[in-house]
Design brief:
The protein is an alpha+beta fold. The protein is built from four helices and twelve strands. The strands form two sheets. It has a six-stranded mixed β-sheet with strand order 1-4-7-8-6-5. Strands 9-2-3-12-11-10 form a six-stranded mixed β-sheet.
């Protein structure tokens, strides 16, 4: 099967909003829970493809992939969000390529997710504060709760979930534990 990708970051329609208080979000799932990312940070969506494991790296780092000649680290969001063991790879498994900023530099990172559901415009009135308790994930990872009908999706804070310095520190701690 050929690897397919969907480019989303350069589409002007996705970056411009008709409503002042609305934003576009990419909705996806992990362990049957709904999550979302602001579409402005999403560069493309890939079908799952060969990922090279990095020896002695943190379990949060799924590995790296070759994206048109560039080495892109792939984060296992299942583990990063604290679910524990990774979900099995299926035909629906995707890698969301996002743009993150660290020390003034733009970097591409991949996020391994169970499946991608949709891109939706979300009105500001449907964005709610997250509760201070009851979440499976760290509160600092949550930007807001998005109300979709009778359900909610957790909007993630990209700069916190994909914090390069914290991910490097996790990797260093893993290496130190291997040495001990």
């Amino acid at each position: 099967m050929e690897n397919a990708s969907v480019a989303v970051a350069d589409d002007e329609d996705l970056n411009e909003s008709n409503h002042l208080d609305s934003h576009r979000y990419l909705f996806f799932s992990i362990q049957n829970d709904s999550y979302s990312l602001e579409i402005s940070a999403v560069q493309e969506i890939l079908e799952y493809q060969k990922i090279t494991r990095v020896p002695k790296s943190s379990e949060v780092i799924h590995g790296v992939l070759n994206l048109r000649g560039h080495v892109v680290p792939v984060i296992d969001l299942n583990r990063r969000l604290g679910y524990g063991e990774s979900e099995p790879i299926t035909k629906k498994t995707c890698i969301i390529i996002i743009e993150v900023y660290s020390h003034g530099e733009s970097l591409s990172m991949g996020a391994l997710v169970s499946n991608v559901k949709a891109i939706r415009e979300v009105d500001g009135s449907n964005m709610k504060d997250s509760p201070s308790f009851g979440s499976k994930i760290k509160p600092e990872f949550i930007s807001s709760m998005i109300n979709i009908g009778d359900d909610f999706s957790i909007a993630l804070k990209i700069d916190t979930v994909f914090d390069i310095d914290e991910l490097k520190e996790m990797n260093s701690m893993k290496e130190a534990s291997v040495i001990c």
